[in-house]
Amino acid sequence: MPEVLTRHPETVLQVLRSAGAKCGEGAPQKILTQCPAESFCALPGGETCVYDVADVGRMTQISAADLAPYVCKQEQGSGCSAARTDAGGLLVVGLVAGLALGRWSRRRSPATR
């Protein structure tokens, strides 16, 4: 049975309910036993689990590594790290630390140098 990954899980659950699915109602989970109860939908033809993009790590059929080639710009030798936002944050932290260290060293008196 499929797992669904979306930025709008509530909308997907609403659409499934409108088609007769029982979502988040405590229906028995026969196949997708790891699906959070609030994300689980039972349909006459099977089961589905709806995940928010932020919950990709909780999925059992797809991993973040499976998605990386599709969501990260693959450049020669750089892989996915070039597309990560934490690299920009690290740069800012480095700049702030450098500025603070520079100010601290200027404040030191000539006698301590």
Please provide a written account of the structure:
A hairpin with a 2-residue loop joins strand 3 and strand 4 (46-52). This protein has helices spanning 9-18, 64-71, 86-107, and strands at 3-6, 22-23, 40-43, 46-52. It is of the alpha+beta class and 113 residues long. It has a 4-stranded mixed sheet with strand order 1-4-3-2, with helices on one face. It is elongated, with a radius of gyration of 24 Å.
Strand percentage: 15-25%
Order of helices and strands: EHEEEHH
Helical coverage, percent range: 25-40%
The helix tally amounts to: 3
Task: Output the strand order for the largest sheet.
Answer: 1-4-3-2
Largest sheet: 4 strands, mixed
Q: Provide the number of structural domains.
A: 2
Q: Give the radius of gyration.
A: 24 Å
Low-confidence stretches: none
The termini sit apart by 69 Å
Q: State the secondary-structure class.
A: alpha+beta
How many runs of DSSP E, i.e. beta strands? 4
The mean pLDDT is 79
Provide tags for this entry.
113 residues; alpha+beta; four-stranded mixed sheet; 3 helices; 4 strands
